[in-house]
Amino acid sequence: MPGTIAVGLDGTEHSLAAADWAATEASHRGSILRLVHAWTWRVPDAPIAMDPEEQQRWATGVLSEAETRVVKDRPGLPVTTQLLATDTVPALVAEAAVADMLVLGSRGHGTLVGNLLGSIALHVLRQATGPVVLVRNPSRGSAPGQPLDEVVVGTQDGEEADPVLGFAFAAAAVRGARVRAVRAWSIPPVFMWSPGSMWLADEAGGLDSFRKERLAVALRPWRERYPQVDVIEHVEIGSAAQVLLACSGRAVLMVVGRHVHGRLDLRRIGSVAHAVLHHAPCPVAVVPHS
């Protein structure tokens, strides 16, 4: 059965840009595109109030405009639309739980994370149990002589990295892009190293070689599953956010992980994901892991 890519719409150009990106992604993957808008009758704050029927017509128009836009150049794309009669955040969190990914618009660069993401996207990112992709408007073009041909993914040790790597390799495969797997590292304080870990690093030829070896091990099953995808193993000393952003020049998509346990606050997004969402020029996929 084909998968589903859901898009949360709010009538802005940012959400229409998200619908465009998601439509292209659905075409690549052979997926169904699901356009949703959450709407419930509320007393407007504006002095000129719309009655419930006017509000509902506007909400329905949000879906119709997006559907007309995405099928114009993709006549064979299967598209469904639904007006969700509930509050926006729980509606989008529920969509993220059942779709292959949820795509939302992002407002671009800003001083505060609230201005960058918007309060809705921020709350959805905190709670979503499935991948969420943030798309900016307008989409950037590639620099002269530099194509956008990489899916950049931040990696870390452990099985928890599997959903993140799996998402990145699948995204690269449908695009014919290569994966740039990035592992940033810093020299840990001496007291954090046990004799065993020091021995492993020494056997690997030093800390940098040790990190490269660990990255190669993490990537091995994904290389075998996606033999058609070229992979660049990028290991660099520095903060994870800085290294990832430095690799964004050819990125058509950036993929980062997010822990799903802990309190419902900004830290649940994670400092690396937070920085990438704030500054990366390309769409960013945030993939939950345990």
UniProtKB/TrEMBL annotation:
Provide the UspA domain boundaries: 3-136, 150-288
Q: Where is the signal peptide?
A: none
Q: Which residues form a coiled coil?
A: none
Membership in a protein family? Belongs to the universal stress protein A family.
Q: Give the protein's recorded name.
A: Nucleotide-binding universal stress UspA family protein
